[in-house]
Queue: 4 jobs
Job 1
Amino acid sequence: MTVQTAAGPVAFDTEPIWGTWFQSFAAGAHLLDLATGNGQVAGYASGASAACGKAFAITGVDYADVEAAGARMPPDCRLLGGVALEKLPFPAASFDGASSQFGIEYADTRPALQELGRVLKPDGRALMLIHHSDSVITRQTAEQIAAYDAVLGKSGAIRHARRAFTAHLKGLPAAAAEDALRSAVQQAAVRLEPTVAFEPVRYMVGYLDDLARGVASYEPKSALARLEVFEAGNAAWRHRQQSQTRAALDGPGRDAFIQRAAQAGLALTERAELTDAGGQRIGWRAAFLKS
């Protein structure tokens, strides 16, 4: 995980947090990582197992397809895709511990916490790192969305590019579409600002500028296919950014989360703000005990 600074991206390493916590479990513990993604935290659990000489059984779940990530995991880790946190496919009281690194808050937290309470054993523990609405991560995410919208939100560059390559594919006049593409890219480039918030959209504009400068040099069918992938990728990126800002919890949101956890039989044992070495707020840290 990285935080953008004026000097470039700075990594925020959560492994020490997870390593210490996982090592506190007894040998043979069954551990569950929620919204595991690429299995990073599950991997930390495996590393903690090796470091303390205790064997753990580690399961990571995610709604997304995690088959590729699962193939790279250590033997003591298994990753399951297509799993909604609101409906975990495990018997009651299956796990001694559960982790979530910026994951559970993306779910419908009321049923997700009920499911977590169901699958944890009595005295089972959970540790969660949760997005904070006023963290540096959330602020930078919101700034990146605003930068994208300011530069490409109303731009017709992709539409004009598609028209130009379609004209070339069909052997039709393409000069007007090419001129419109170059104009749209130039207008987008003028809106770029020299701040880190504009770095993602700067790359996108650069890609479109490359197309605009040499439409005739690209094979039309291939260029159209690449444009489709580019546009889908942009939409997916923006959706992820928006999802993060929506999932982030402010103070009342955190309190509501804790209350929902209590209703699921999860008693709060720790609550703190998570900060980096420079004192920047990164997120919420919350720990729970299954009663």
Job 2
Amino acid sequence: MKPNLLDFTYPELERFCSELGEAPFRARQVWQWLWQKRERDFGRMTNISKELRERLGREVDVVWPEAVQVQTSRDGTTKFLLALGDGQRIETVLIPEKDHFTLCLSTQVGCALGCTFCATGRMGLVRNLTMAEILGQILVAREHVAGLAAGQAQGQTQDLALRNLVFMGMGEPLLNWENLRRALVALHHPLGLAFSKRRVTVSTVGVPGRLAELGALDVASLAVSLHAPTQELRARIMPKAARFPLDDLIAELAAYPLQPRQKITIEYVLLGGLNDDLSHARELVRLLNKVKAKVNLISFHPSPELPYAAPDMNRVLAFENLLKSKGLPATLRKSKGQDISAACGQLRAEMAALE
């Protein structure tokens, strides 16, 4: 099997072109064709010599994840079921905002953490995604967005761009650190996907050591899936994540490098009758006292195979108001894509592998 050129970082692509006897600027040209122009056919890379195009075709491939199913929610959210080269499948979700799109990216096939309120965790971990499979989700989404724009009558609606990336899909990003690191660095390249770091968020339950490495890399905002204000309750609903003691996690977050006005997003799924009491809100305020944080509250989306209920909306609002009254910024995330199982915690790629 030939290497996938999308798995090459820019320095690796420069070295590869040098090994082919090509000048350094050839790497820049190929990189732009791959990531800016989304070209998969070497024959259409018209500013490259025919000889080099033919040699690239012999030595490497350009392989995207294949969209085998595309579902659109009533609210405009689009969920892609993507087939990978070995037949495994993942999901990625394109979320419409007022003036742009946000893409929710997966980093693993399945997830090893098994959080009890998350459908993805019931799959277990199959394998990590490669850099090409992570960034390929962006190429698929941008191609889809470009198709939407082309299909609109001129001047009918404002064209929306894919502007934000959130690593909140299937898998725990920091347990696929090496491929995640390569992908984060590559997607910021100005001649490629060209995302600024303030447009990228990595969500994690907290992995010892990796948090510090992510902070030192300084290429993304941080979101932490907390979901409980005490070690005991976190161990009950997130038993594997809770092996990293809560006190140690909070100490790492307090030391996490941030810009002056930057905050860590704390994600908190409200489970009806379990972690949504005002006493939990008070404990959360105390827990985050030394962390520069804002809280993103998420109402649990019920699922037949998961043993939890949605919280009462009055309790949700009371929880949010208490956090705010204590000076802890909090917002209630608007659920999108729930009718196509594309909301938080619902991704599971039910048809996990191609027949």
Job 3
Amino acid sequence: MHSTTRSAAISVRGLTKHYGDRQILDGVDLDVARGETYALLGPNGAGKSTTIEVLEGVRRASAGEVSVLGEHPMSAPRAWKSRIGIVAQSTGELGPYTPRELITRFASLYPNPRGVDEVLELVGLTQHAKTRATKLSGGQQRRLDVALGIVGRPELVFLDEPTTGFDPEARRQFWSMLAGLTSEGAAVLLTTHYLDEAEYLADRVGVLTGGRIVAEATPDQLGGPEARTPIVSWRDAAGVRHEERSAAPGLLVERLVDEARELGLAEGPAELEVRRPALEDIYLDLIGATGAER
């Protein structure tokens, strides 16, 4: 077990959620340690947002044990709310206010907030601090969502698809900012459809599909050793594409080249390639094995 309830920011056992006959979560177990970034991956409809809403105390579980910063979200005292930061999947109502005004307002709700200028700098909105929020671009509004989620200096941050709408440079800036948060001891639970983001940011990743977490490991160990066996791909003389996993790809390539030359193909098989499976390949194999839609 990765962490105990006492040291964990999040500890969940047997989390179940259903709506009538529709089962969304079916016995989810999850631990996130303080200072850890955990990426929860899964296809649309897998229950990622439902899981986060239960942990935030927004939605009631059908069954299971849930502890977040040592409290049950549905019965936690008001002060507990000030210890968590939430960046929801969609931008909320911003009203006729500027980023500086909104961050200042949110900062007043917390006992030990970050400075407004510090937050604006962290999320890259310093030059837009006095622009009405409704006039910001979609990506800039998303940065503002992040700003409001971290201004209270939370011990635990929920990030639900946080970089949707970010350009590549903005995503990299966000990654650097998040690394700064975790270096201060904050735990992060992240959902994302960007596999490179999960690979870069997460200490561990879990794959949620079919209502359960079907795999959990560090990004470089997800799926186990077999999932990372090199893949050799090529087209044969008839133009048919083949793929084969091999622990000895060099020997397989030699055999394919010899066979091609016997058929008069001096340059060997067409489109011959050897690659190691990326996190995305392993992820798709995991959700495909459960019958989930890709």
Job 4
Amino acid sequence: MEKLRIVFMGTPDFAVGILDALLQNHYNVVGVITAADKPAGRGQKINFSAVKEYALSKQLRLLQPTNLKDERFIEELKSLQANCQVVVAFRMLPEVVWKMPKFGTFNLHASLLPNYRGAAPINWAIINGEKKTGVTTFFIDDKIDTGAIILKEETTIEPNENAGQLHDRLMHMGCKMVIKTLQLIENNTVTTTIQVDTPEIKTAYKLNRENCKINWQKTGIEIFNLIRGLSPYPTAWCLIKDGEEEWAVKIYEATFEVNNHTLPIGKIQSTKKEMKITVQDGFILIHAIQFPGKRKMLTAELLNGMTFSENAQAL
């Protein structure tokens, strides 16, 4: 049995959990590839990716190419003499990279492929009200998340689970699945299933300011799913208008209460402890919110120092 020499590629926290599992299981990680450092926030402070922070702490060989086709990077990658590449939440790879290792390049994706190919599978599964999701390993090919499936495992999405909670569960499932996939590769017992495209396939589009905005005209369950599907990051948001004041607020936590009312949609009703917003089939009760320039607060805490008028509304 040929010993694996692994190059790992990934960027966010989700990928760190998998890289850690490789080291805990004594796999030989000969190199780590992650995103280039970039300035973030108001001070434009240089931010390291979560994977870079972890790789440095473990003194792993680190590469941060800006161009994956750059000849110097390709030469450096070849010099690592990897025979397998593991990719988790990275970017699209050129053929020269994914075809390089003898045992191929496989990806761990946080959905049940072919559904939710793309950048934000965990978020969209919740936003769309799915009852189940899972993790999939597959060999990379020349398109995004379309390669031959190696392993797939599903799990139930709990009715009140948010994206952060599901992220952590899928990361733990993914750790076990990546190790199982590597064992199949080591033992030369991999079998694959070709993905079949159908018109019903759902896509995990990139999240942006537009698709994270709450549309109060939608049903209560759709709004509730959007809020939990974007919590804690990047967070659902909306405008709140009260007289001359208008704020763009982030809503982290809410519940939906069914109610057959005749109130106008978007109307804000608040007491000293409770804030609810009218939707077509009931109320969205806001439990955690953030106003511009302020920290995230529990609603009761916010209402301690803030009152809304009769005319306050969510837009």
